[in-house]
Amino acid sequence: MHENLTPTEELVGELLAARYRLGEKVWTLGSRQWPAVRRLEKRGLVFAKSGVMEKTILAGLTEKGLAEFLDPTYVPPVFLSPWRDQSLMVQ
Which residues contact 43 (CB under 8 A, 6 or more apart)? Predict the structure, then answer.
């Protein structure tokens, strides 16, 4: 768990990190998450603005947020698969 974050803040940060790993720099959240997002924004971990649809937020991780929520040793599971290595495939 990240230091001094509420469970909701932790969840929002981990969600944005997971989406970032999948190539999404920003993600839409429900407006019920505004309080947690605002607290993360004050810490410099996320940026946010009103979403395109009513009652949504568009949020993403800042550089500080990326450092906080992304493990530098993370390797996507697809790259760990033995099927990725053609020499291991059954011919």
Answer: 64
